[in-house]
Amino acid sequence: MNDAVAVAANLLAEPARAAMLLELMSGRALPAGELAEVANVSPQTASGHLAKLVEGRFLRMEQQGRHRYYSLASSDVANAVEGLLVLTNGARKSLPVPEVGSLEHARTCYAHLAGWLGVQIADALQANGVLLPAGGRAFAVTQRGYEWFKEIGVDVASAEDGANPKVARQCIDWTERRPHVAGAVGVGMYRRFVALKWIVPAKNTRAVRVTLEGKRELWKRLRVAVR
């Protein structure tokens, strides 16, 4: 066990590998060349780093023609990276809302919504009786919650005990230091918001922005005010 922890820590400690993992937190699969640019290393060096991350089960690789595409191996990897960011990042000291367009304001965390906006939505869902905090870092989806999600087109699978972290999980946000919503609910909600054009992912970054329609809907449905 100690050896496994040491191996994992060594893989994450290298700046180039850390940069690649952070870039892949968007949930997208990216080619080796693009990851080399992100990490500011040569293609040959990047290949070595990527091979180690695949061997360590942090990444998976898919071959398409002559190109190799890399993505995070699982949501567990994303959770580990986000957890490390929480440990290394102090509490946000500035009270004003983060600048629109910044990662701190709204971003993807693997495949769900994070940042100030993600935390505001998580708070509003609880205030409106859609979710309830439960044990084991889970959220419980209430009966009202199932109806609310159905109204916006998100299919939420039921959990036998009413609280399952795979269905809805409290993911501590590394910039806000409070939970946003992860799990199947978080992923489904993010995808639905994009499909409804309430939020729009920014190019070449994990940041997202809220559209005018999104601002109206988030206020109407959750009383979340987004400037």
What report would you give on this structure?
- This protein has 227 residues and is α+β, with helices and mostly antiparallel strands.
- Helix 2 crosses helix 3 (32-39) and helix 3 (32-39) crosses helix 4 (43-55).
- The mean pLDDT is 87.
- The radius of gyration is 18 Å and the shape is globular.
- It folds into two domains: 2-73, Winged helix-like DNA-binding domain superfamily/Winged helix DNA-binding domain (Arc Repressor Mutant, subunit A, Orthogonal Bundle); 76-222, no CATH class.
- The strands form five sheets. A three-stranded antiparallel β-sheet has the order 1-3-2. Strands 4-5 form a two-stranded antiparallel sheet.
- The protein has helices at residues 2-13, 15-23, 32-39, 43-55, 75-88, 115-127, 143-152, 183-195, 212-222, and strands spanning 30-31, 59-64, 67-72, 107-109, 112-114, 131-133, 139-141, 169-172, 179-182, 199-201, 208-210.
- A hairpin with a 2-residue loop joins strand 4 (107-109) and strand 5.
- It starts with a helix and ends in a 5-residue tail after the last helix.
- It contains nine helices and eleven strands.
